[in-house]
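Incident log, structure service

09:12 report received: a user says their structure output differs between two submissions of the same chain.
09:20 pulled the input from the user's history:
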Amino acid sequence: MAKIFIGLALVITLATAALGFLTKSNIQGIKDKATEAVNAKNKAEGNLQVAKTELKKAQDDVAAAKTAVDEKDKEVAAKTAQIDALTKQTTDAKTALEDKDKQIADLTGKLSGVKPEVVAPTVDPAVLDELKKRAEKAEAELAEAKQLEETMNRKVKDNDSRVAALEQYKRDRERQLQRPGVSGRILAVNPGWNFVVLSIGDRQGLMTNSPLLVTRGGEPIAKVRVTSIETSRSIADVIPGSVRRGVTVQPGDNVVYEGSRNQPVHVAEPTTPASAPAPSSSSALPAVPQ
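09:34 re-ran on a clean worker, output below:
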């Protein structure tokens, strides 16, 4: 009987030991899974923080690009106002010149009427002196009018030159002159509004409405068109239907200008002729952006 109890005690002891071993293994497994879950959570939080930082930077880039667009619009408005002012000055100068031409014609007519009376032998000496004075005064007025005419002609010519230079600059901007071969990369993408922020801008010769080819690994995947520019960054819209099937435009993709190679590289700033009068502080031209 004692042997039976001893055997049962031994069996119970072995079963208890086996159960304890299995319980310890299960607890260790649960601890390992809990550790993995904590690590995964920390990694996800780190990725989320990086994504938030990149989104904030992209939003700042977009805000800066929009500010640059507003500044460019103000510059264009200022240039247009300058052209209008110069055009008005030219018109006023031409009107004044026509008035002086009429005065010269009147004075010439007076001189032609005075000379026969001066040589007439029957004219009274007092009248002759008066006629001579009138003739001298008319000749002085004629010389002054001619000098004024020359001055007005120079002013009209200078104003025409300045207007032509400004209009040429405006036409060049409107034709969207572009340095060929400009390349950069995409800094941020807004899929909701279908636009991207680029790492190139006015400093690299980029112009509004410039077409750019988006490449990845040397292969073209889409096309974009520039809508606004600042010094070293710009915003471009993704051209609908140009994105290759199965891909999306991503930050880090490369962009390259695909325009004509024979377009001019640089827009020259219009200069004021040396003979033109110096403009007042209220009408001085701001520097043309390069």
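09:41 both user submissions now match this output. Likely a transient worker issue. Closing.
09:42 reviewer note: The first helix runs from residue 2 to 119. Strands lie at 183-190, 195-198, 211-216, 219-229, 234-238, 254-257.
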